[in-house]
Every structure is written in structure tokens, then in C-alpha cells.
Specification:
heterodimer; A: alpha+beta; Alpha-Beta Plaits; 3-stranded mixed sheet; two-stranded antiparallel ribbon; 9 strands; globular; B: 839 residues; alpha/beta; 7-stranded mixed sheet; 6-stranded mixed β-barrel; 25 helices; 19% strand
């Protein structure tokens, strides 16, 4: 069992729906984006292309963040999901430095979305699981996955660009798409062996 | 900190089936509530409307519900000075005091002349809009209602949808389409009918191999996803479409003659006076029967009717409509069109050929065991193309591309969203079908008129404009009270001054989520509206715009509160009902509701009865879907679905109705308007766009002016199509994490010629002297003669602190007068002739 995701860039429309679905599901604080989208244009007028690249923690098989964590806060589960135990994290941020994908976020201050107004009922509920002074990141919606659900970004995506499943299951949708559509991974050169695959635009 | 009303001592974990209200698509949602707090919003997979998915706005609704800057109590203006940017000095008052003041005003107006009540609504709440315009206003006795959306681009597409598709909206049949030509439209990634449904179907089609060619001045997300982008000068789209028509009809012979003969007025003969030649006895339009060599009424012609040539009928030289279209289009050679559009002639030729060949004229497809014509090519368009003062001609030209290749309302082509409905199997409600008039043409019918709301004049910018310039001596009533149901009309039209001038002398009652620009400038009383997560609405997708065309399921939803309204917020419909009771016309409201919702005994409302909003909603549910599908059923289930029949999705092969290629009414209509303008002293107005066949006329901003070398446009992005998007902290965060939202986009080379670098502060100044300031973002993906701004930012209201000063208000560049309006469709010219310089 190794959970992973395939993101089809031919489907992705760059709408940032994943970013907001992640916000709503995980209730992260301002400035912390477990899911985000990069934009780029290539070429010169009129021969131009635009690309959107959705990013999240790549849940690498050989995750350097796991190796460098001095307290064992970052762990790789048997199902491939890389997690952070905020009780063990001391906020040293070594993991931020070794992550090639910028997928980790250090929560320095208890920022809220309506400064000067305290927290609203949703924030009051959500921020209980976002302490400050620690590093956090996408956990592939572990609490949903444990209930047999798919990650929030996967079910929300209005272009159905994301497929979640077991990379070790040869009959799963993720392995089929990887085989059929010439999947690639970001920064293969790092040797970290991410579990997030992309299909060409 | 906001405290939810009521104490939730019991642990609670509930999902509520409802409808999104962040834009007019009204997708089906499931709202997760934990201990009384909304914790998550997901799409409802049980509904074809949204098909279980959500755009970025969907989950962001949580932050709308709990925004601490929402209006929570009725407010009274204490600063008598009204004005743009004025501080109204709100004072909280009780609901009873607010409704007493309002009832007194309305009682007086109703006794004097009810037409003095004006009402403005927003299409973001179609159900509440229908109630306000279709129940409250008729019962009060006024027809002075209008709709204001975010960036008014008129209703050109509505007119063509009604006239050519028997519907109020159109959708490409992307399930069967192989070649999609997009003009100024964000179908797939953003602003189009049924956003999330379309996004999924378009993604499926791209993977299947559908080719997409996007025509747009700025490469938005749709053009970015297209296989090919054709950068074009804003407002020149009809020149390009006319060139395609010319090539298809006159050079390549890629047109569907059988379709044109059978399903259009292509064979109808037109006389030198511009009208159909008619049979002297029956009055029916004539066609030329080539076999018999004589003219016959259209319904007596044999198979061999002429669609080209010139014929003498009753001593007059007459030509079939298609012949006229050929001649009209022939002046638009690729070279002539290229000069206007800047699209290279060879590209115009290639794309025209690709489109015509992709339509596979003559081919058929078997769907549900029935053989139907298969025309897998469609040309679609939206506000980016028709948002100019040549809107009618642009829409007609693009629309006719679908007609000449026979792809209109055929599998694979451009479909009306819901032209034919047999209704729910048990109740046969709602039921409508395309009709045929005496001339054999499609007869506009339900749901064409925006489901009883009176069609496109309602959706017009004209009312505020005429209210502003109304000559008090020539009109026997003036606006005295304005009820604003949630629209931000000062920002949503054009030049905010015009909207302000129109209503500054009125008593203004405003239902608001926030104390926005319109409320602060104009409102005397602000009423705290319940947002979509706090309220009940029957038939939230009232306009039927969200439902995707083609095969699939019909669906009808309920919107129900995920939480009870916080603080003293109340749903505008509930309040309007109470106003009717207080003022004393609830009997008429009940009667109007029976008419609008088509309620018949035993579910019709008793005019003498007093109904709550819940009871009224229950009657609508039962009236449409039977006693077993009342409000309780909908609260439990959220959505009622049943499969579309083949001829509901593809009605045309089964219908006798012909679509007009030739719009005989247009010149006549133009002449009537000119006469009215002359008689009422408005003076010289230009009606030269009232043409029966497409052509290109420059929009106002198209014409070059010395020193003003650019056209400014605005474009749509998926995180921006919501009112108050900048006030939503999650959507606002997208704007900041995205490279374009807070910038004025311009082509790198154009900027470099002006000495402008990326990030420089710049002024964009229009010929009319309006200007806005922002920072430049240099890019390649934009036409060199264009600057582009996303959505409408630039809020200034104190009640929107997160949105304040974010982005720029593009609409403030637009001049708002009769000369800048397409008088056929009532679109404001959505671009401005500008110069750009460093600030």
C-alpha cells in the first residue's frame, strides 16, 4: 500500500479550487497553503502558452524531511503518507530547507483572517489543530482517508484533474493513468521519489 | 468574536443538502455542520448541477457566513448627505422600526402612483430575484424592476438563445463535440453557464481530443487551456465570424443545405424592401420552388426549394435569405477581416475550414437507438465577445456559424439549455415546448422570457440610465423609492456617478450582506440579508442557466438553511412578504405567486390567506412535484432528478419550427425606437446596428483616437465571479498568490515602448477623461493593443475592509450613456479607448 495522487494537467484549469477546498477542510491559518497553484506563461506573443501547476506535499518515498527531522516529528506511515506530529515538532525548520517543493510551512504567529476581530466560529473550531511555532503541511487529508473518503482537493476539483489511490495496486486508477498517459514527477533529480504524479498538459 | 445564535450543547455532526449561492450557477452542495458550526461545503454528487464538484467559490462560502463585517442589524442613515464615498453614519434600529418606516413610505407611493417604486435585483440569487420581480413588484403595481450584475454586458446572447434555441441560455454539446470555437468566453474554467458542470464536461472532452480554438484579446484561463489562441482586437469579433461565414458559404461550400432548407428561413424570399415576400392570399412567407419554377408559401414548397439565386415574384426581384447572407458575408474576405481583427488571413482560412470540416455535414449518430444528425462543431460566445455596443451583430454572426453548418441544437453542436420539458413524470410540471408561429418560425415561449420575468428588457442597464436623464416634463412619474435586493449597482454597471444620480433623490431601502458602496452612497435603510447558507429558497436555479444542455438528468433543488440566520439577519423574501402584509397587498402577492409559480388548486395560494415563506415554498414544491414532494421531502433529499428524454435534449430533429437566419424584426424595431426617441425629444440616436443579417460595425472604443492607442478590457477569473470576492479572505488570498489579479496586464513590448516596467505604477486614462491607477504586469499572453484588468475590484466602502483598495474598478472607466449602449441588446460598451502612462 502506497497512497499517491495523479494530477492531470490537461484537465487542470488553474482555478485554485483545490487551494480553497484544502482551506475549508483543514482550516489552515492565513498565508499557509497546503495546496496551491503556480502560474507560468511560456513563449512570446502571439505564440504563447499558459500553464498552471497545482502543488502539494509530494509525500516522497525517500522523503528527506523524514531523515533530517531531529525529533522524529515527521514520519512516513506504512501507507506512504508523510505526517508531522506537532507535539514533537520543535520548529527547527530543517525540513523546510530540504524540501525541494516548498511544501512545508512554519506557523510563526497565530494569524487570523479578520485581524482585530478575534476568530469567527469556523476559525475557533479550525485553529485548535494549528498551533504556532511548528511546521505543518498537507497530510493527504489523513482523517478523511481513514474514514474511507478521498482528500478534499480530489473531490472538489471541478475539472476532475486529481485521482487518488494506491500506487502499489496495479489495477488502480492511479497506476492506469500513470501507465497510459506518460506521467512524470516534479524534480526527479532530487531522488526523493515523490508519490504525486503529473500527466502532461 | 461572533457567537452563533442558540447554544449547541449536544455534539452534532450533520450534512445538509442545499444549493450554492456564490454565483448564479447555483450548484448543488452538501454542507457539513459540526456542533452548530459550518465546517465544510462539498458538491452534491446526487445532482447533475455541479455533478458533485465545486469551484473555488463553493467552500469559500464559509467565510461569507462568518465574516465579522456582515450587516447584522437593520441600519438607518443618520447622515442626510448622500454621496459616493460618504459616511452614512449608520445607526442600528429595530426590525419593527425599520419596517414601520418602510411601510409608511410604500403606502404613500402605492396610493399616489405605484410605478414610482423601483426595484433592483441580482442574478446571483435567481430565486429571490424571481420573487422580488415576479411576485412583489406586480402585486405592488410597478413594472420598474431591473437586474444589475457585475459588469453589465447586456442580453445579446439571451436574444439569440430565445430566437434560435428556444431557451434562455446555450451550452455546447461537449459530450459529442470535436471542435469548439470560443469567442470571448471562459467556458471550462470560469464565467459561463453552469461553471462546475461545464468544467468537468470540458475536461472530459479535452482528454477525448476535442480541439478548442479560443478567440480573445487576453489569454485568460480558457484560452490558456485551448489548443490555439487567436488574439483579437476587442469588439472586432463579428468581422472574424463574418469572414468565417463568407468562407464556409462562398469559398469552401461547407454548409448544411438540407438543414438550412428544413430548419431555417434560408429559403424564404426577401423583397427589395427588406421584408419577406408574402403570399397575397395567405400572407405566408414565400419560397421559390425550383421544380415548378414559381413561388409558393413556405409550407407548400416541395423538397427542391431554392436557397440561392434571384427570382421575380409579383414583379419584384426577390432573393432567398441564404443568398442575402452569402452576399452580406462576401464583403468580409479574410484580408478585410484581418485588417480589423489583426488575425492573419491564412489563420482565418485554416480555422474556417477546420470548423466546417469538423461539423461532418451529412453524418449521423445513434443516441438511445435513434439516428440523429451529428454536427460535432460549435461556436460559443459570452460577454467578452458581445460586451460591446455592437453586441447584437456580434452575437448574430457567431450564432449563424452554428446555423450554416447545421450544428444548432443538433448532437455535437450548440444547444439551448432547456428548450423542451415534459416535466416530472408524475405531475408533468414544469412543462414547455418550442412553438411555431404563422410564418413557420420558432415562437418565443416559456422558458424564454426568463421564466415569467419579462425577458431581456428586465435585464437592462436602461432603467437606471433613463432614471438619471429622465426629462421631468415628458414623463408623468419619477422614481421615488428604490428597493435594492442585494445588488451593488454603483459598481456593477459602469460610471458609478450615473447610478448615483439616478437614485440619489429616492428613498432607498437596501437588502445587504455588507455595507457596500451602493448602500453607503444611497441607502436610507439597510436590512441585514441572510446569506445563502442561512436561508430557504424554492427552485434556486430559477433561470435554468446552471443546468447543462444535452442528455442527462433534469434536477430541481431546494436551498435550505445550514444554520439559522445569525444575529438579526432575515431573508429578503420573508421581509418582502411581511412588507406586503403591513402595506396591505398580501392578497395580490398571493395571486402573483400563483401566476409566477404556476400554482393550481389544491396547491394554489388563497389570496385572502397569510402565508409564511416556508408555507409558500412548500406550496411551490407540492405544486410542481406533487404532495409527496413537499418542503419536508426536499429538506430531507435536497434534489429531485429524473432522466431527460432524447427529444428534450435534442428537440430540433423532431420539430417543425424554423430558426430565423434573417431577423426581419430588427430594422422595424430600430425604426420604432428612433421614432420614440424623436417624439420624446431624446434626439438623434444611432439605430444603424438594427440589421437583419450580421455585419461588423466598430464599437465606440474601437475607433482610434490620437494619443489614445489602446483598448482597456476586463476579463473573468474563477475566483472573481462572485460579488464581494475581494472581501472573502480565502478568495482574496488567491488573488495575492496569483500573478495577475491585482495588476493591470499589458503586453511586454507595448509597455517597453512606453518606458513601463513590470510592477510600475501606471495610469489608464480614457478618451472621456476617466482614469484609474494600478501597477503594471507585463506579459506576452495579451494583444499588444490591449490592457486588461480582472473582475471588478477597487472597493471603497468602509463596510468592506478586506476588499477596500484591492485591485481596480474597471467599470469606472466606462462611459454610461446612450451612445455607448447597444440599443438592440442593451449592452454597455465594455471596453474603453485609453492611453497608459507611468504614474
Amino acid at each position: 500500500m502506497r497512497y499517491g495522487m495523479v494530477i492531470d494537467l490537461k484537465r487542470c484549469i488553474g482555478c485554485h479550487g483545490c487551494q480553497i477546498a484544502c482551506k475549508a477542510e483543514n482550516g489552515t491559518r492565513p498565508g499557509t497553503l497546503w495546496a496551491r497553484v503556480l502560474e507560468q506563461e511560456l513563449g512570446t506573443f502571439p505564440n504563447v502558452r499558459r500553464f498552471s501547476l497545482p502543488l502539494l506535499c509530494q509525500h516522497c518515498r525517500l522523503a528527506p524531511c523524514v531523515e533530517v527531522c531531529p525529533t522524529g516529528a515527521t514520519q512516513k506511515r506504512a501507507d506512504g503518507i508523510v505526517t508531522i506530529d506537532s507535539d514533537k515538532c520543535v520548529g527547527c525548520r530543517y525540513c523546510l530547507m530540504v524540501c525541494a517543493y516548498g511544501s512545508r510551512h512554519y506557523q510563526a504567529e497565530p494569524w487570523t483572517y479578520f485581524p482585530g476581530n478575534g476568530v469567527n466560529p469556523y476559525e475557533a473550531m479550525a485553529y485548535a489543530s494549528h498551533p504556532t511555532g511548528v511546521v505543518e503541511k498537507c497530510d493527504l487529508c489523513l482523517s478523511r482517508v481513514e474514514r474511507g473518503l478521498q482528500p478534499a482537493c480530489v473531490v472538489a476539483c471541478p475539472a476532475k484533474a486529481r485521482t487518488f489511490g494506491d500506487l502499489h495496486d496495479r489495477h488502480s486508477d492511479v497506476t492506469r493513468l500513470i501507465d497510459e498517459r506518460g506521467a512524470f514527477r516534479l524534480r526527479e533529480d532530487t531522488g526523493a521519489c515523490p508519490s504525486i504524479f503529473y500527466l502532461p498538459p | 468574536m461572533i457567537q452563533p445564535k442558540g447554544g449547541f450543547s449536544q455534539p452534532e455532526d450533520t450534512w445538509v443538502a442545499s444549493a450554492c449561492g456564490m454565483c448564479s450557477s447555483q450548484c448543488a452542495i452538501l454542507v457539513h455542520r459540526l456542533n452548530g458550526v459550518v465546517s465544510m461545503i462539498e458538491g452534491n454528487p446526487g445532482s447533475p448541477l455541479g455533478m458533485g464538484r465545486l469551484c473555488p467559490g463553493g467552500p469559500a462560502g464559509i467565510q461569507l457566513l462568518y465574516d465579522p463585517y456582515r450587516v447584522n442589524h437593520p441600519l438607518k442613515r443618520t447622515n442626510p448627505e448622500k454621496g459616493i464615498g460618504a459616511d452614512p453614519r449608520w445607526q442600528e434600529i429595530s426590525w419593527d422600526e425599520a419596517l414601520s418606516i418602510i411601510s409608511e413610505k410604500l403606502r404613500k407611493v402605492r396610493a399616489e402612483d405605484p410605478r414610482k417604486l423601483f426595484l433592483c435585483g441580482t442574478p446571483v440569487s435567481p430565486s429571490a430575484l424571481a420573487f422580488a420581480l415576479g411576485v412583489f413588484m406586480p402585486a405592488f403595481g410597478s413594472s420598474s424592476g431591473f437586474i444589475c450584475d457585475d459588469g453589465h454586458r447586456g442580453m445579446a446572447q439571451g436574444i439569440t438563445a430565445v430566437r434560435l434555441h428556444a431557451s434562455s441560455a446555450t451550452n455546447p454539446d461537449v459530450t459529442h463535440c470535436d471542435y469548439l470555437l470560443i469567442f470571448g468566453c471562459e467556458a471550462g474554467p470560469a464565467d459561463y453557464y453552469g461553471f462546475t458542470t461545464m468544467a468537468q464536461k470540458m475536461a472530459d472532452a479535452r482528454v477525448r481530443g476535442m480541439k478548442v480554438v479560443a478567440v480573445a484579446p487576453y489569454m485568460g484561463l480558457a484560452a490558456g487551456k485551448a489548443d490555439e489562441w487567436l488574439p483579437i482586437r476587442p469588439g472586432s469579433e463579428s468581422a472574424l465570424a463574418c469572414a468565417y461565414l463568407n468562407l464556409l458559404l462562398n469559398e469552401y461550400g461547407l454548409y448544411d443545405a438540407e438543414y438550412i432548407r428544413r430548419h431555417t428561413d434560408g429559403p424564404y424570399l426577401v423583397g427589395p424592401d427588406g421584408h419577406y415576400a408574402r403570399d397575397q392570399v395567405s400572407g405566408k412567407p414565400l419560397v421559390w420552388d425550383a421544380a415548378d419554377g414559381k413561388a409558393k408559401p413556405f409550407d407548400e414548397g416541395a423538397g427542391d426549394v431554392a436557397i440561392d439565386g434571384t427570382y421575380a415574384v409579383d414583379g419584384r426581384e426577390c432573393k432567398p435569405v441564404l443568398q442575402l447572407l452569402r452576399e452580406q458575408a462576401s464583403r468580409w474576405t479574410p484580408e478585410a477581416a484581418s485588417e480589423v481583427t489583426t488575425v492573419p488571413p491564412e489563420t482565418i482560412r485554416r480555422v474556417a475550414r477546420e470548423f466546417g470540416e469538423a461539423a461532418r455535414i451529412g453524418s449521423t449518430i445513434v443516441i438511445e437507438g435513434q439516428e440523429l444528425p451529428h454536427r460535432p462543431a460549435a461556436a460559443i460566445y459570452f460577454g467578452g465577445a458581445y460586451g460591446h455596443d455592437n453586441a447584437w451583430l456580434t452575437s448574430l454572426a457567431i450564432e449563424l456559424l452554428n446555423q450554416v453548418v447545421g450544428a444548432s441544437d443538433m448532437p455535437g453542436g450548440l444547444l439551448g439549455c432547456d428548450p423542451l420539458s415534459y416535466g416530472h413524470p408524475q405531475t408533468e410540471m414544469p412543462r414547455w415546448a418550442p412553438q411555431v408561429d404563422d410564418d413557420g418560425l420558432l415562437l418565443p415561449n416559456e422558458p424564454h422570457n426568463w421564466r415569467g420575468l419579462g425577458g431581456w428588457p428586465v435585464t437592462t442597464c436602461l432603467l437606471p440610465l433613463t432614471a438619471a436623464v429622465r426629462d421631468r416634463s415628458s414623463c408623468d412619474y419619477q422614481p421615488e423609492v428604490l428597493i435594492n435586493c442585494g445588488s451593488n449597482l454603483l459598481m456593477g454597471l459602469a460610471d458609478p456617478e450615473v447610478g448615483f444620480e439616478a437614485f440619489k433623490d429616492c428613498f432607498v431601502i437596501s437588502f445587504n450582506l455588507f455595507s457596500d458602496e451602493t448602500a453607503e452612497a444611497l441607502a436610507d435603510i439597510v436590512l441585514p440579508d441572510a446569506c445563502y447558507l442561512e436561508r430557504l429558497d424554492p427552485l434556486p436555479d430559477w433561470l435554468g442557466h446552471g443546468l447543462s444542455a444535452g442528455m442527462g438528468d433534469w434536477c430541481y433543488h431546494i436551498r435550505q438553511p445550514a444554520v439559522e440566520p445569525l444575529y438579526e439577519r432575515r431573508h429578503s423574501c420573508e421581509v418582502l412578504l411581511e412588507i406586503g402584509q403591513r402595506v396591505g397587498f398580501s392578497d395580490k402577492m398571493n395571486a402573483s405567486a400563483n401566476l409566477l409559480y404556476g400554482l393550481k388548486p389544491p396547491h394554489a395560494l388563497n389570496p385572502e390567506g397569510e402565508y409564511s415563506w416556508e408555507q409558500m415554498t412548500d406550496s411551490v414544491c407540492k405544486g410542481w412535484f406533487g404532495p409527496e414532494h413537499g418542503l419536508e421531502w426536499f429538506k430531507e433529499n435536497g434534489v429531485l432528478t429524473w432522466p431527460k428524454r432524447l427529444d428534450e435534449a435534442y428537440w430540433k430533429p423532431f420539430s417543425r419550427a424554423r430558426m430565423p437566419l434573417y431577423h426581419e424584426w430588427a430594422p422595424r424595431f430600430g425604426e420604432q425606437i428612433r421614432q420614440v426617441a424623436e417624439e420624446s425629444g431624446i434626439g438623434d440616436i444611432d439605430v444603424s446596428d438594427f440589421l437583419p443579417l450580421p455585419d461588423w460595425r466598430p464599437c465606440r472604443a474601437f475607433q482610434p483616437q490620437p494619443a489614445y492607442d489602446l483598448q482597456a478590457i476586463h476579463y473573468q477569473a474563477p475566483w472573481h465571479i462572485f460579488p464581494h470576492a475581494h472581501q472573502n479572505p480565502w478568495l482574496e488570498e488567491v488573488c495575492r498568490s496569483e500573478p495577475y489579479s491585482y495588476f493591470i496586464c499589458m503586453n511586454s513590448r507595448t509597455a517597453s515602448d512606453k518606458g513601463i516596467s513590470d510592477g510600475d505604477p501606471i495610469w489608464v486614462e480614457s478618451v472621456e477623461g476617466r482614469r484609474l491607477k494600478g501597477r503594471a504586469r507585463l506579459l506576452e499572453a495579451i494583444h499588444p493593443q490591449v490592457v486588461a484588468v480582472v473582475g471588478n475590484g477597487g472597493h471603497w466602502a468602509g463596510g468592506l475592509p478586506l476588499a477596500k483598495d484591492r485591485g481596480v474598478l474597471f467599470n469606472s472607466l466606462l462611459t454610461f450613456d446612450l451612445k455607448h449602449i447597444d440599443l438592440v441588446s442593451l449592452a454597455i460598451d465594455g471596453d474603453a479607448r485609453v492611453k497608459v502612462y507611468r504614474a
